[in-house]
Write a sequence for this structure.
């Protein structure tokens, strides 16, 4: 792949997904394009590029390709400090607030579902401590349709569950005959998944969120884009709602509606009450 072609792919990926692909990832790009090109019998990078940007078949091909080019690494309870923060936050909410409306959480860039299911498990545990048999919901969104399909299936290998303690594993997972584990129906029913491109948050139907969790997604984006995305996410919180990011994912951003939670373990913000 020559320089001109690499730039063409960089621009396409960044304009459609927001991800900037540094020169150091050129081999990664070439390898993944090569695999896909062999699968569909496409001879050159240029021929494949033309295919991806043309017509309806290009849209379908793009959906497959984007899954191969995005980093989807994820784990249950990936960030224990952020998980503890969620628990503390929910347990210290005024009871009357929790009784008023259902508690809504959103995992932005949810990959194969481990993060939204973790949130649902945390919320389920909190609600049972509080003795509130109350409704809560979690929405997981991602750009990758294949990742979302895996998330919806909610089936995970034993290796995927190593970060969970045995009590949570037996309470929230059902072991299948093929030695995989399925997330329990009680949790699965609380979580819905939808394809949302983070660059198109303006048209995303998620509003009135009590909790927005956006970790390990923004790191692939340019700084100015991270700020734009965060501004959009801030607007989707209810007053008193919390936004949790990955540590160090943004350093120089603030929002008039949000106040940073003083913590050196987690990067989180609370939306201030509306001024009337
Ligand atoms: C490294 S995973 C992070 C998964 C999870 N948030 C976690 O921290 O474990 C990044 C995810 O962001 C998704 N992603 C990348 N660009 C996106 C975009 N423009 N819109 C929505 N999701 C995107 C990828 O498909 C991938 O599933």
């Amino acid at each position: 792949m020559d320089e001109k072609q690499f730039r063409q792919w960089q621009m396409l990926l960044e304009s459609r997904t927001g991800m900037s692909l540094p020169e150091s990832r050129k081999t990664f790009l070439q390898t993944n394009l090569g695999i896909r090109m062999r699968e569909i019998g496409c001879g050159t990078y240029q021929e494949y590029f033309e295919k991806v940007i043309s017509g309806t078949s290009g849209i379908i091909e793009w959906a497959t390709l984007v899954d191969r080019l995005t980093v989807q690494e994820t784990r249950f309870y990936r960030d224990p400090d952020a998980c503890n923060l969620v628990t503390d936050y929910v347990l210290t909410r005024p009871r009357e607030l929790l009784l008023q409306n259902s508690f809504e959480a959103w995992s932005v860039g949810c990959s194969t579902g481990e993060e939204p299911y973790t949130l649902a498990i945390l919320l389920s545990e909190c609600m049972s401590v509080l003795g509130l048999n109350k409704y809560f919901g979690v929405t997981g969104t991602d750009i990758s349709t294949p990742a979302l399909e895996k998330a919806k299936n909610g089936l995970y290998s034993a290796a995927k569950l190593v970060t969970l303690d045995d009590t949570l594993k037996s309470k929230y997972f059902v072991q299948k005959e093929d030695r995989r584990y399925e997330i329990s129906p009680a949790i699965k029913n609380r979580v819905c998944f939808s394809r949302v491109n983070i660059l198109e948050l303006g048209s995303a139907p998620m509003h009135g969120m009590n909790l927005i969790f956006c970790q390990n997604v923004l790191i692939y984006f340019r700084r100015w884009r991270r700020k734009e995305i965060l501004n959009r996410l801030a607007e989707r919180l209810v007053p008193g709602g919390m936004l949790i990011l990955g540590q160090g994912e943004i350093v120089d951003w603030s929002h008039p509606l949000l106040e940073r939670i003083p913590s050196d373990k987690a990067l989180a913000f609370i939306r201030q009450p509306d001024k009337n």
Notes: The chain has two domains: 3-69, 80-271. Residues 17-19, 70-74, 78, 109-111, 115, 142-144, 147, 197-199, 215-217 surround S-adenosylmethionine (CB under 6 Å). Strands lie at 103-108, 136-142, 155-156, 173-175, 181-183, 191-195, 209-214, 237-245, 258-260, 267-271.
